[in-house]
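Attaching the record inline, Q. Sequence:
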Amino acid sequence: MNISQITFSPTGGTDKVAEIITKVWGMPVNKIDLSNAETDYPSLDLDKTDIAVIAVPSYGGRVPDLAAQRISNIHGKQTPCVIVCVYGNRAYEDTLIELNDIAQKSGFKVIAAISAIAEHSIMHQYAAGRPDTKDESELTGFAKKILDKINDNSGRSVTPQIPGNRPYKKSGGAGLVPKANTCCTGCGLCAKQCPAKAISTENLKTADSKKCISCMRCVVKCPQSARKVNGALVSAAALAIKKACSTRKDNELYI
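Structure, as predicted:
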């Protein structure tokens, strides 16, 4: 039995959560990076004897469109699947139920779902330092319960009750498009690493606002810390969600 860890994690928080879960199982892990624009996703076929963990961040309470498209191109063969949504301590709204539907349409059999917290990718004061040791303990406990279900063939047939609404809430636009300042050396790493191919090697200073998904990958990966988003807009957005983010949210397991 092998594990396919399928993650969309532009800034690393979702990867951290997925790795906490999969390392508990002590099996070989094949990592599929959904943020890699060069991967031939339609060529990926998973076997029924494998276990898949599909983990994405919640963008405004929805699955990121780019992640949804790439998951839809992967072929499951009734592969048992754990879906995970990771959010920055505000709310994940319809992310889990949408991810459930995407996974099922791609041939996966969802046996468990997790919502987890990681540091907000733009407003870092929210969920700062998470997942922390308490989160790791909780997620480890979740992973052990899921493994028990995997090992119990009759338990695999139990369908988890996953929260969310159909139709899903309306998805928002990108909004915050990072730009480079005078520290930019023109190395081109941002263009190479951009999941949406929104940065042209001929114009590294900005990004195509129609393609950019505000994932902040370029901000995190820039070796010169040259890429930034508009500080005033970030401050306004942080103030708007301050009340919703003021109380520590717990990780949740649906099994």
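The first strand starts at residue 3 and ends at 7. The chain is about 30% helix and 15% strand.

More tomorrow.
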